[in-house]
């Protein structure tokens, strides 16, 4: 669709190219994107919430990406060119996200890392697809796969993987029959709700109660009272870190003793802190990255992370680190291609990451396995 | 029935926090007629200040609250001082000024405490009480008691003390108040300081129930702020009345945080004047 001869087009020819490209439904500002890869630093964007309720998520993600880029730059960048990482704040808001997507297009960014909020990524995807900017997201909602953009990749498993592993553990291993559900009506909560309900159905179980809360709710007495009446063996939690923590805290105050079960957010320190370590005890977590101690690679990553930020590494940083490394590896292997060629290269990249062995399929998902962990003494460790 | 009662009980303590926010809010609104859009953010700063002294400096919870009230009271004074030149000149600018202060406070909180927020453990360790199958947290009881006491104290201040009477006079007619020798600016400053102090109290009490971060105040803003815009002049303390039940009401509705708008006229009608 576009001329690939870099730096040789004269201005009128480039202008003509724009017109042609525009007629082929391309966004304005594309004219120079093909030149972006030829000189100066390689521009990569991290788009994540740096303010608002999802800021901790965005912060972890940006830290993981920055660490990966720093390591590559220390080794001399890619073919002698430095990688320049710019962080954009999407505030966890889809509208802000789409504005940033347009900025990335006009700013000639080669690739994007993020976001951690599926709804934002889904909103950005059409613009990035049109601008041909490959994007490795930290989202996990199945809606990301439904977008069917060849430029969108996930740096972890989808909700389906998280929740089928979790349902399998609860039903087959623990032999739980009465499972209650509480999830929020946000994009993450809804995705989790649907994926877990489907997984339960496959196992032949109907939840004893299915409670939906809003994303900004603070008092969960009503839902939790109903859950208490249903006397469940375990309670599925489809909510982000902070809200899930508040739910667990209030549940314990109401005298609910059944263990909670959830996916990635329930394994984070923010969740455990918000709930209180004692209340979060025995929470069952489905996660592709249980701790920093699972392999030599994760230990090395955790050490580097600690040295850089003075904090302990966790899942989201690891995911972004993996995603960024895959992106940079693909950039290197393709001889710094951009657009479609880079996306194809990412799809072809086999990468041994912290989360496991990545091998992307057509849907942009590269990893299909999670493991079950249990919170003991305020720390997540592998289930026995 | 049990579920309904449990929801009511759970909501009452959160409602008590809303009530405190609303009281602080209306102290400023009644004195100056100014809708202080920074109010919820002042409460957020109060929550952060309290959590810092409680968690980091390990002072007792009650002392941390007092320190946080003082700190935020000073912030209230600063806001009033900055906005004072606009008083009686350009009200819209003053209003926008408070929005600006809200943004500044949020940004300041992010700069000082970072983006990630913090969880506060409850200062009361004893378990919840169980009455007829309904569980009541001891901390909730404390919050409700403190709110009730604060409302009583504020009423006494307004009715029995000179500065309180002066504030009421300014609220009724600031020109007439000036004529009888009341320093309107000082009275407004006091209103701002008291408002901010009560906000800090609310924020501090909310800390162990919620999660302290820079956006803590956002839901409060939408619950408390829109109501006085349609209210007529009169008593200082009407708002707590209206705000308190919203704690129970909102989770029952489980739809949006703006739910209060739809029922507030019902509560507003028997307002004391």
* Rg of chain B, nearest Å: 18 Å
Quaternary structure classification:
heterodimer
Put simply, the count of helices of chain A is 14
Mean pLDDT of chain B: 79
Describe this structure in words.
The complex is a heterodimer of chains A (384) and B (273). Chain A is α/β, with parallel strands linked by helices and 384 residues long. Helix content of chain A is 45%, strand content 16%. In chain A, the strands form three sheets. Chain A has a seven-stranded mixed sheet, with helices on both faces. In chain A, strand 1, helix 2 and strand 2 (83-89) form a beta-alpha-beta unit. In chain A, helix 3 (94-106) runs parallel beside helix 4 (118-131). Chain A is globular, with a radius of gyration of 22 Å. Chain B is mainly alpha-helical and 273 residues long. In chain B, strands 1-4 form a two-stranded antiparallel sheet. A two-stranded antiparallel ribbon of chain B has the order 2-3. In chain B, helix 1 (2-32) packs across helix 11. Chain B is globular, with a radius of gyration of 18 Å. The A-B interface holds A 50-53, 55-56, 58-59, 212-214, 216-226, 229, 242, 245-246, 250, 253-255, 270, 273-276 and B 2-3, 6-7, 9-11, 14, 106, 110, 114-119, 121, 128, 130, 135, 137, 209-211, 213-215, 218-219, 247-248, 250-252, 254-257.
Summary tags:
heterodimer, A: 384 residues, alpha/beta, five-stranded parallel β-sheet, 14 helices, globular, B: 273 residues, mainly alpha, two-stranded antiparallel sheet, disordered C terminus
Q: How would you briefly describe this protein structure?
A:
The complex is a heterodimer of chains A (384) and B (273). Helices cover 45% and strands 16% of the residues of chain A.
Layout of helices and strands:
The complex is a heterodimer of chains A (384) and B (273).
Chain A: H1 11-23, E1 42-48, H2 55-74, E2 83-89, H3 94-106, E3 111-114, H4 118-131, E4 135-137, H5 143-146, E5 152-154, H6 159-173, E6 179-184, H7 187-202, E7 209-213, H8 221-229, E8 234-238, H9 241-253, E9 260-262, H10 269-275, H11 277-280, E10 284-287, H12 296-309, H13 315-333, H14 339-348, E11 350-352, E12 357-359, E13 371-376, E14 379-382
Parallel strand pairs in A: 1-2, 1-3, 3-4, 4-5, 6-7, 6-8, 8-9, 9-10
Antiparallel strand pairs in A: 10-13, 11-12, 13-14
Chain B: H1 2-32, H2 39-56, H3 61-83, H4 91-113, E1 118-119, E2 129-131, E3 134-136, H5 138-160, H6 162-172, H7 174-179, H8 184-206, E4 211-212, H9 218-224, H10 238-243, H11 246-253, H12 260-268
Antiparallel strand pairs in B: 1-4, 2-3
Helix pairs in contact in B: 1-5, 1-8, 1-11, 2-3, 2-4, 2-8, 3-8, 5-6, 6-8
């Amino acid at each position: 669709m576009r001329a690939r001869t870099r730096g040789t087009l004269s201005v009128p020819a480039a202008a003509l190219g724009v017109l042609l490209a525009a007629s082929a439904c391309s966004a304005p500002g594309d004219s120079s994107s093909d030149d972006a890869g030829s000189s100066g630093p390689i521009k990569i964007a991290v788009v994540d919430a740096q303010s608002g309720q999802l800021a901790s998520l965005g912060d972890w993600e940006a830290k993981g990406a920055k660490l990966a880029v720093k390591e590559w730059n220390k080794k001399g960048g890619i073919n002698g060119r430095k990688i320049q990482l710019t962080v954009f704040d999407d505030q966890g808001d889809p509208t802000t996200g789409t504005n940033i997507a347009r900025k990335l297009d006009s700013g000639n960014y080669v690739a994007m890392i993020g976001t951690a909020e599926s709804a934002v990524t889904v909103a950005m995807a059409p613009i990035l697809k049109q601008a041909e900017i490959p994007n490795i997201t930290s989202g996990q909602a199945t809606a990301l796969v439904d977008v069917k953009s060849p430029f969108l990749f996930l740096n972890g498993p989808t909700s389906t993987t998280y929740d089928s592993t979790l349902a399998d553990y609860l039903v087959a291993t623990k032999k739980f029959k009465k499972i209650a559900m509480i999830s929020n009506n946000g994009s993450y909560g809804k995705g989790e709700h649907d994926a877990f309900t489907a997984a339960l159905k496959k196992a032949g179980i109907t939840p004893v109660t299915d409670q939906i809360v809003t994303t900004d709710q603070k008092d969960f007495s009503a839902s939790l009272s109903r859950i208490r009446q249903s006397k469940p063996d375990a309670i599925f939690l489809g909510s982000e870190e902070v809200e899930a923590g508040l739910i667990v805290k209030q549940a314990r105050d109401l005298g609910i003793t059944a263990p909670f079960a959830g996916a990635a957010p329930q394994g984070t320190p923010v969740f455990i802190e918000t709930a209180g370590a004692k209340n979060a005890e025995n929470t069952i977590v489905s996660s592709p990255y249980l701790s920093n101690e699972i392999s030599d690679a994760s230990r090395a990553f955790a050490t580097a992370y600690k040295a850089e930020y003075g904090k302990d590494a966790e899942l989201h940083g690891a995911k972004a680190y993996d995603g960024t490394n895959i992106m940079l590896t693909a950039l290197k292997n393709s001889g710094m291609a951009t657009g479609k060629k880079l996306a194809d290269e990412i799809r072809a990249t086999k990468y041994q990451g912290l989360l496991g062995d990545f091998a992307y399929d057509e849907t942009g998902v590269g990893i299909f396995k999670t493991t079950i962990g249990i919170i003991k003494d305020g720390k997540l460790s592998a289930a026995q | 029935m049990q579920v309904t009662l449990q929801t009511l009980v759970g909501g009452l303590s959160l409602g008590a926090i809303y009530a405190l926010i609303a009281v602080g809010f209306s102290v400023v609104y009644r004195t100056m007629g100014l809708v202080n859009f920074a109010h919820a953010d002042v409460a957020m700063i109060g929550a952060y200040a309290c959590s810092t002294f409680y968690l980091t400096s390990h002072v007792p919870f009650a002392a941390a609250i007092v320190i946080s009230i003082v700190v935020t009271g000073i912030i209230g004074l600063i806001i009033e001082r900055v906005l004072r030149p606009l008083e009686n000149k350009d009200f819209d600018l003053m209003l926008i000024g408070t929005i600006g202060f809200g943004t500044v406070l949020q940004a300041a909180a992010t700069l000082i405490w970072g983006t990630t927020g913090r969880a506060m453990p409850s200062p009361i360790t004893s378990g919840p009480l169980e009455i007829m199958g309904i569980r009541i947290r001891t901390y909730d009881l404390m919050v409700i008691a403190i709110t009730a006491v604060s409302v009583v104290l504020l009423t006494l201040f307004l009715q029995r003390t000179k500065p309180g009477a002066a504030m009421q006079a300014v609220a009724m007619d600031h020109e007439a108040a000036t004529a009888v020798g009341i320093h309107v600016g000082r009275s407004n400053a006091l209103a701002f300081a008291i408002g901010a102090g009560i906000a800090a109290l609310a924020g501090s009490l909310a800390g162990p129930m919620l999660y302290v971060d820079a956006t803590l105040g956002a839901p409060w803003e939408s619950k408390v702020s829109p109501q006085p815009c349609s209210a007529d002049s009169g008593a200082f303390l009407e708002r707590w009345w209206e705000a308190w039940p919203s704690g129970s009401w909102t989770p029952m509705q489980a739809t949006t945080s703006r739910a209060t708008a739809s029922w507030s006229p019902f509560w507003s009608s028997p307002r004391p004047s």
